[in-house]
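Final report, closing paragraph on structural work. Over the funding period we assembled a curated collection of sequence-structure pairs, and we close with a single example.
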Amino acid sequence: MDARVHAAPQAAPGPAAWATLSQANDQYRRVMVRGVFDHGRETLVQAVTDYGAGFWVLTPLRTTQGFTVLVNRGFVTPERRAPETRSGAQVGGPQTVVGLLRVTEPGGGFLRANDPGAGRWYSRDVAAIAAARGLSNAAPYFIDADARPNPDGWPRGGLTVIAFPNSHLVYALTWFGMALLTLVGYGVLARETRRRRAAP
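Its predicted structure, as stored:
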């Protein structure tokens, strides 16, 4: 995983590679893509970061290869929710984005489902966002932009939290818990046996 995150960026996968993408092989792969942002179709997704509560700014990028990819340009505070509060970052013309490939997050957050009709997003569900924004030929993944500063300093990229399941730790904790319960059960049984023997 560490090697994937810090490797030289590769071209973002195009349509021919989409069917073979997987979380195991592609999540957090460092990629690069060039294209033009469609700021009029940006989507705000609720987020909590080291900067506090706010939003991820997901902006469609029409690539020079002809497909569209959602780019998580970074985090904004609630005060910077409106695009006019960060107009310097509404860059035009061809842009190069370097970041980490991320697998879609379908459905919504832990406790709340996405509500596309109301424009309330709690997860970065690529297919649902693409449908709601009328994006065609959209990649089934998004890109978390790196920490290169945007004009005016917002959105703030490079805040990806790299997390993956640690099944070995879960396995060890499960067995530790079972062993502890066995010891407790044995202690209760031994105490009950002694109590019965001591009874007149």
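The chain has a mean pLDDT of 89. The first strand starts at residue 10 and ends at 11. We thank the funder for supporting this effort.
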